[in-house]
Design goal:
Elements (H helix, E strand, L loop, with lengths): L7 E2 L2 E2 L15 H28 L6 E3 L4 E3 L4 H11 L6
Antiparallel strand pairs: 1-2, 3-4
Length: 93
Protein backbone atom coordinates (compact mmCIF):
# COMPACT_ATOMS: atom_id res chain seq x y z
CA UNK A 1 0.00 0.00 0.00
CA UNK A 2 1.56 3.26 -1.19
CA UNK A 3 0.08 6.26 0.70
CA UNK A 4 2.72 8.85 -0.14
CA UNK A 5 0.12 11.37 -1.36
CA UNK A 6 -1.75 11.44 1.95
CA UNK A 7 -1.02 9.09 4.85
CA UNK A 8 -1.61 5.54 5.95
CA UNK A 9 -4.61 4.87 8.22
CA UNK A 10 -3.66 1.36 9.40
CA UNK A 11 -5.43 -0.63 6.65
CA UNK A 12 -6.25 2.05 4.07
CA UNK A 13 -5.01 5.36 2.72
CA UNK A 14 -6.64 8.60 3.80
CA UNK A 15 -8.83 10.22 1.16
CA UNK A 16 -7.51 13.75 1.71
CA UNK A 17 -4.49 15.11 3.60
CA UNK A 18 -6.87 16.78 6.07
CA UNK A 19 -7.83 13.34 7.39
CA UNK A 20 -4.26 12.69 8.48
CA UNK A 21 -3.36 13.31 12.09
CA UNK A 22 -0.38 15.55 12.40
CA UNK A 23 1.37 15.64 15.71
CA UNK A 24 3.00 18.91 16.60
CA UNK A 25 5.51 19.23 19.36
CA UNK A 26 4.29 22.16 21.40
CA UNK A 27 6.62 23.75 23.83
CA UNK A 28 5.55 24.15 27.39
CA UNK A 29 3.80 27.48 26.72
CA UNK A 30 0.37 26.12 27.66
CA UNK A 31 1.74 24.67 30.88
CA UNK A 32 3.53 27.90 31.76
CA UNK A 33 0.36 29.90 31.06
CA UNK A 34 -1.69 27.57 33.25
CA UNK A 35 0.80 27.83 36.13
CA UNK A 36 0.87 31.62 35.89
CA UNK A 37 -2.94 31.81 35.89
CA UNK A 38 -3.21 29.50 38.90
CA UNK A 39 -0.55 31.45 40.81
CA UNK A 40 -2.32 34.68 39.87
CA UNK A 41 -5.60 33.37 41.27
CA UNK A 42 -4.06 31.91 44.42
CA UNK A 43 -1.98 35.01 45.18
CA UNK A 44 -4.11 37.74 43.60
CA UNK A 45 -7.45 37.16 45.29
CA UNK A 46 -6.09 37.15 48.88
CA UNK A 47 -3.89 40.16 48.08
CA UNK A 48 -6.92 42.02 46.74
CA UNK A 49 -8.97 41.12 49.82
CA UNK A 50 -6.18 42.19 52.18
CA UNK A 51 -5.64 45.49 50.41
CA UNK A 52 -9.36 46.29 50.48
CA UNK A 53 -9.45 45.34 54.16
CA UNK A 54 -6.54 47.71 54.77
CA UNK A 55 -8.28 50.55 52.93
CA UNK A 56 -11.69 50.05 54.51
CA UNK A 57 -11.04 48.78 58.03
CA UNK A 58 -7.54 49.54 59.34
CA UNK A 59 -7.56 52.63 61.55
CA UNK A 60 -4.58 54.94 61.86
CA UNK A 61 -3.83 57.06 64.94
CA UNK A 62 -5.79 54.75 67.22
CA UNK A 63 -5.18 54.89 70.97
CA UNK A 64 -5.07 51.98 73.38
CA UNK A 65 -7.65 52.48 76.13
CA UNK A 66 -6.71 50.51 79.25
CA UNK A 67 -10.18 50.84 80.79
CA UNK A 68 -11.85 49.14 77.81
CA UNK A 69 -8.81 46.95 77.03
CA UNK A 70 -9.15 47.88 73.35
CA UNK A 71 -8.00 50.39 70.77
CA UNK A 72 -10.30 53.36 70.29
CA UNK A 73 -10.48 56.28 67.92
CA UNK A 74 -8.51 56.70 64.76
CA UNK A 75 -9.58 57.05 61.15
CA UNK A 76 -9.39 54.85 58.10
CA UNK A 77 -7.82 56.00 54.86
CA UNK A 78 -11.22 56.57 53.27
CA UNK A 79 -12.46 58.56 56.29
CA UNK A 80 -9.33 60.69 56.06
CA UNK A 81 -9.88 61.32 52.35
CA UNK A 82 -13.52 62.19 53.03
CA UNK A 83 -12.51 64.63 55.75
CA UNK A 84 -9.88 66.30 53.58
CA UNK A 85 -11.82 66.50 50.32
CA UNK A 86 -15.50 66.83 51.19
CA UNK A 87 -15.73 68.58 54.55
CA UNK A 88 -12.97 71.06 53.73
CA UNK A 89 -13.49 71.93 50.06
CA UNK A 90 -10.87 74.14 48.42
CA UNK A 91 -11.56 77.87 48.46
CA UNK A 92 -13.12 79.26 45.30
CA UNK A 93 -11.20 81.86 43.39
Amino acid sequence: MNCTATCCKQTYCAAIPGDCIRYFHNDFLELYTCVVVIIGIVVGIPACVRSMEFLLIYKFCKVYNEDENAYTGGTTILEGCYTCLIKNPPASA
